[in-house]
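Query structure, 254 tokens:
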């Protein structure tokens, strides 16, 4: 399996990252892309990936952190993106759910990063919550040559259709295992083309197990199993296709 988004630079993993990574390998998670949400994350994620062959990282500024974003960061970001282990630009986008940064700050931060997109040949890793219309209207102003994923998709069918029309990839987390919050998402699962569906844990958040607070990459299997159940497919077929899709998405085929 390929966990396309895990926040391994989080302080929740500072004490036992080795154990977490060892457990995830044992659970069949062969590759992980560490999500970064600001430049400190990027720096720390790079350091972690230097130690482990099967780890990669993203280079981006999360909308929650938009208030700290400065335009001169783009230069550092593009330097990091030259690293073969830095496999995507993100996470970036809009999150109007909690507005840790103002809408204006989020839009500036998002658009600034999008302006980098055309000078790099790496896919875009996008975050959107409660901002579907604004998010799409910004993206529709750009023409991208690379692939694009809406990670941790939690929307409804009409939002899904908007993304599929634009050929976006869709990232599914343990949100799908939540019988209450995940209702809309569970309805969508059957409508995602097999070649567009990727899986992720978003660790340490969104644990698919009720009794365990800290999510870890080793629980990615729960996401694969739930997706398979909802699609009436075997878990093996979801594991295989999502892994292949991830390699394709991140251009990791050699
Ligand atoms: Zn996110």
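Result returned for the query:
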């Amino acid at each position: 399996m390929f966990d396309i988004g895990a926040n391994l630079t989080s302080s929740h993993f500072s004490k036992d990252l080795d154990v977490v990574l060892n457990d995830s390998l044992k659970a069949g998670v062969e590759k992980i892309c560490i999500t970064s949400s600001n430049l400190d994350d990027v720096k720390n994620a790079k350091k972690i990936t230097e130690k482990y062959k099967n780890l990669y990282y993203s280079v981006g500024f999360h909308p929650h952190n938009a208030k700290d974003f400065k335009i001169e960061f783009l230069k550092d970001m593009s330097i990091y993106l030259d690293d073969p282990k830095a496999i995507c630009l993100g996470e970036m986008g809009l999150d109007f759910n909690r507005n840790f940064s103002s809408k204006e700050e989020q839009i500036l931060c998002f658009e600034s990063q999008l302006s980098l997109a055309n000078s790099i040949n790496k896919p875009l890793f996008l975050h959107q919550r409660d901002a579907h219309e604004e998010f799409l209207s910004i993206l529709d102003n750009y023409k991208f040559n690379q692939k694009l994923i809406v990670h941790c998709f939690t929307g409804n069918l009409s939002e899904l259709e908007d993304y599929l029309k634009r050929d976006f990839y869709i990232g599914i987390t343990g949100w799908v295992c939540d019988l209450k919050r995940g209702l809309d998402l569970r309805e969508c699962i059957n409508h995602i083309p097999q070649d567009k569906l990727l899986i992720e844990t978003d660790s340490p958040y969104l644990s698919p197990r009720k009794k365990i607070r800290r999510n870890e990459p080793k629980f990615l299997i729960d996401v694969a199993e739930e997706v398979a159940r909802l699609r009436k497919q075997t878990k093996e077929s979801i594991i295989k296709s999502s892994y292949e899709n991830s390699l394709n998405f991140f251009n990791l085929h050699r």
